[in-house]
Design brief:
The protein contains 13 helices and 16 strands. With 429 residues, it is α/β, with parallel strands linked by helices. The strands form four sheets. Strands 4-10-9-8-7-5-6 form a seven-stranded mixed beta sheet, sandwiched between helices. The chain has a four-stranded mixed beta sheet with strand order 1-2-3-13. Helix 4 packs parallel to helix 10.
Length: 429
């Protein structure tokens, strides 16, 4: 009998473009034919698949549920909100409540606007910034979504976004006229940014404050100084980093404030809400630009964000995330040393990335496949949540140690490739 998840995936491939809504959750991108692609229930750090199997989720793609799945306090609140209505001819009061909350945390900002997704938020921030200085060209450093303006960086060279996303991002469907409007610079290298400015007349710098490692404060200060001198709008994209390492954008711990900042993922604990905040003179420049979308006014996202931020503040969730992350990082490193396998691990404690200098693709798929046998969802990424406590982490770590012992014994004759990055073992488990 075909399992429900397998049946759904077969059907999805026929009727849904690229099988699902987000690339990083596509089963064929993680482990073809083996990854349990669909769920029916989740709680804390556990997921029950469509086939009724319970998994400890140690990857938590793509980092939105820092308070864990199905937070009872949040869910109870949202049920009462739904009973009162989620969309009417009038606006929901939570729009104002959330705005006041975010601006109180980020005192440098004065004005807020909201979207449902991070890609939309990034595109809107670009529109606002272009309204301010009437310049089209942008220097980018980081991952900023799927929209035309960003992918245009790869029109002239398919490797331009390699260090920010992945290799060979295709630009089919992106207008060729956008070529030479987006230019990537290297994090930590202020000269690469200055060179772009000199040659390309940029009016906007858009960057992640950090990604794999903690912020480079010296570099951020250099960027801020340079953008002020040249009257360039500085945008910090904190869709991923915001409200994970501290209460607010991680830029708050650096002392470097942008002109505009973007938050997503964690602020709604899995509910669709993204925020663009900024200084009044930059945000208000877009007053006469047409910016409007029906479901930006939907109530649940706003209500979820208000309640999520209140819970975060109350339980100081970021302290738990850092504690859990540091425990995992420390022990992961020790296990790799013990097994004499060279590991590249990032410094950012609440988003842990693992890779090998050699045979990384094999390691990634082997890790995922072997963890599945133990009812653990795991990839080379861990988006830490508050329920990745010692007990759950120890379960993962014990299995990791055993998996690495097996990985060391792998010989080329023992596996065959399926697709580009995945394998199936020829050895009986």
């Amino acid at each position: 009998m075909v399992k429900k998840s397998k049946k759904y995936l077969i059907e999805a491939k026929k009727i849904i473009l690229n099988s699902n809504m987000i690339l990083s959750k596509n089963p064929d991108m993680i482990l073809p034919n083996l990854w349990p692609g669909y769920f029916k229930k989740s709680f804390k750090s556990y997921v029950i698949s469509l086939d009724g199997k319970k998994f400890l989720d140690m990857t938590c793609l793509v980092g939105q549920n820092t308070l864990g799945y199905g937070n009872k306090e949040l869910s109870s609140h949202l049920k009462s909100i739904i009973d009162d209505g989620n969309m009417t001819s009038l606006n929901c009061p939570e729009e104002v409540e959330l705005s006041k909350f975010l601006l109180k945390i980020h005192k440098w900002a004065n004005v807020v606007k909201y979207t449902r997704s991070g890609g939309e938020a990034n595109a809107l921030a670009v529109r606002i910034a272009r309204c301010f200085n009437d310049k089209d060209n942008i220097a980018i450093c980081g991952y900023h979504g799927w929209h035309d303006w960003y992918l245009a960086a790869n029109i002239s060279n398919k490797e331009n976004l390699k260090s920010h996303l992945f290799n060979n991002i295709q630009t089919k469907g992106v207008p060729k006229k956008l070529q030479d409007t987006i230019f990537q610079f290297d994090y930590g290298n202020i000269e690469s940014l200055k060179k772009i400015y000199k040659e390309k007349n940029i009016g906007i710098v858009k960057m992640e404050v950090c990604r794999n490692n903690l912020p480079n404060i010296k570099f951020l200060k250099q960027v801020r100084k340079f953008t002020k001198e040249k009257n360039i709008v500085l945008i910090f994209d904190e869709c991923t980093t915001g409200f994970r390492h501290n209460f607010g954008g991680i830029h708050l711990i650096t002392g470097v404030n942008p002109d505009i900042a973007i938050f997503g993922k964690a602020i709604g604990n899995g509910h669709a809400i993204n925020a663009i905040i900024g200084k009044k003179k930059f945000m208000n420049a877009a007053k006469n630009s047409f910016i409007s979308s029906t479901f930006w006014s939907e109530r649940i996202g706003f209500a979820a964000a208000v309640k999520t931020l209140k819970i975060m503040k109350s339980v100081k969730h970021w302290k738990t995330l850092i504690k859990n992350g540091n425990y995992l990082r420390k022990n992961i490193k020790e296990i790799f040393v013990k097994n004499e396998i060279d590991l590249v691990i990032n410094e950012f404690p609440t988003i842990i990335s693992l890779s090998l200098k050699k045979h990384n693709d094999l390691f990634r798929s082997f890790l995922t496949k072997e963890m599945l046998k133990k009812n653990i969802l795991a990839t080379n990424l861990i988006y830490v949540n508050i329920f990745h406590n010692k007990a759950n982490s120890d379960k993962y770590l014990k299995n990791l140690d055993n998996i690495l012992k097996k990985f060391k014994k792998l010989k080329k004759k023992n596996y065959s490739w399926i697709g580009k990055n995945f394998y199936i073992s020829r050895v009986k488990d």
